[in-house]
Amino acid sequence: MEFNIFTVIAFGLYALIILGIGIWSFRRSKNMNDYFLGGRQLGSWTTAISAQASDMSGWLLMGLPGSILVGGLTQSWIAIGLFIGTYLNWRICASRLRKMSYAAGDAITIPEYLQKRFFSTSPVVRFVCAVIIFFFFLIYTASAFSGGAKLFNFVFGADYVLSLTIGALIIISYTFLGGFLAVCWTDLIQGMLMFAALVIVPIVLLVKIPDLGGAFQNALNSNAVTEYYFSFIKAPDGSLAVTTIISGLAWGLGYFGMPHILVRFMAIKSSDLIKKSRLIATIWVFVTLAAAVLVGVFGMMFLHNPENAELLAKFNEMGDSEKIFMFLSSSLLPALIAGVILSAILAAIMSTADSQLLVTSSAVTNDMFKLFKKNAGEKTLMWISRGTVILVAVIAYVIALDENSSVMGLVSYAWAGLGAAFGPVMLLSLFWRRMTIQGSVAGIITGGASVIIWENLPIIQISELLDTAASPTGQAGIFARGVTLNEYTGIYSLAPAFVLAVVAIIVVSLITKIDGAKVNELFAKASKTEIDGKET
């Protein structure tokens, strides 16, 4: 993209607004409850949009349109799975978690909630949770930083490392200052900006494509796509996309275990507001996911019109399908409007990274440091939290230094790890009274470890015929190599890991003891009517 002063102005104004909110929130965050949950005073709109904006990171405007552009509509099963998961999470978990977390000693983090839910004095569950959160959120935050670097590199032509540094500093600044309030209010603004941008771009593309059928035929003739591009159930080679469908739907399971989304349910002013929030969130998610899919589809058709051959050549030169939204915005819209639209990508990146930094900070402070320094004051804990934001951001920054990393790949890995580790535990803790603390720990470890094993360990040996150029010895022949379960099956790791975690929780819970009277009392307390956000 050519440098344009109007684009710089749009980005600059956006950054100033975000930092201003951080400073305002800094003055309002007086204690840990304020910093991590905003004093449990969020309204319906802020809760709904903040929850979904923090969920839909840069992958929504980069990874998803890029995968649709290249792979066709079978890739939209990810969007379908996420939409179903969003609705079910709000429908099943939101109200219950708001009440249970307050009834369980006003817990302000997911690890603290689990410890209090099972009446445990042992710090084991909180420590295990904190380690899992720290590990997978490092990868998740790195994906956001990587997306930000690609954005600044595209808009300003800046060096990747410089672009990465600028984006990271902006995100760190207002998260460090304002905590949860800053994150939620900026997420509200960013969520609305993302919504507008994703609606505008496919509409502009549709206007620019005079003949949809002809554009698709041109893409077919150029071998850019196959005849199955618009099929939901067939892969590009014509085979049934069974693993793609299963893996795409499995993404929806991740919602039940996303700490940065679940804390929004805990922070809403009253569970009575959740029905309205659910409606807002469901509409927002449906429209933005559908629009992101259309950006990929219409983008493919637009670029393969003969009259756009020059644009297609420029896009191909970039060699990165994840930049399709940026490229189309800058190519089709006036500079100032393009700057605002491109700010939506920054908004998507920031709205997720800030939440991840805050949740990781809360886990380290409240669920690690506080366990060993029980008498630490509120002010000390808040500064430890802010210091953790810096530490986590620096490590994520180092991970993101690889400019060849895929935003979608990093998000996929982190989403699976968090979803499998916490999803089964959170669901069963809210509805199954027989569940024990030992079962929860077993489930968390099993879910997280299963994802790591499934994605990383080459535990299956396969043989393949290699020519001289590809073989390790420089000679043609059949060679054995190890592949991961992910490579071998094509199944997204979240699906099997989620199932294994559920089994671990049930088996271990059934062979360990539980204080039935205390559990019944907790569930009874959580079912009482709320008044002004407090349990009666």
Explained architecture:
The protein is mainly alpha-helical and 536 residues long. The protein has a single domain (5-25, 43-535), classed as Sodium/glucose cotransporter. 71% of the residues lie in helices and 3% in strands. The protein contains 21 helices and four strands. A two-stranded antiparallel sheet has the order 1-2. A two-stranded antiparallel sheet has the order 3-4. Helix 4 (63-71) packs across helix 12, helix 5 (77-103) runs parallel beside helix 10 (242-250) and helix 18 (437-456) packs antiparallel against helix 20. It is globular. Residues 35-39 and 529-536 have low confidence and may be disordered.
Key descriptive features of the protein:
two-stranded antiparallel ribbon, globular, disordered C terminus, Sodium/glucose cotransporter, two-stranded antiparallel sheet, 536 residues, 21 helices, 71% helix, mainly alpha
- The helix/strand class is mainly alpha
Largest sheet features: 2 strands, antiparallel
CA-based gyration radius: 24 Å
Q: Would you tell me which CATH topology applies?
A: Sodium/glucose cotransporter
Query: Any idea what the CATH superfamily is called?
Result: Sodium/glucose cotransporter
Q: Level of helix content?
A: over 70%
How many domains comprise the coordinates? 1
Mean pLDDT: 82
Strand fraction: under 5%
Low-confidence stretches: 35-39, 529-536
What's the number of helices? 21
Number of strands: 4
Shape: globular
Major sheet: arrangement of strands:
1-2
What string gives the helices and strands in order?
HHHHHHHHHHHHHHHHHHEEHHHEE
Euclidean distance between termini CA atoms: 58 Å
Q: Do you know the CATH architecture?
A: Up-down Bundle
Question: Tell me, what is the CATH class?
Answer: Mainly Alpha
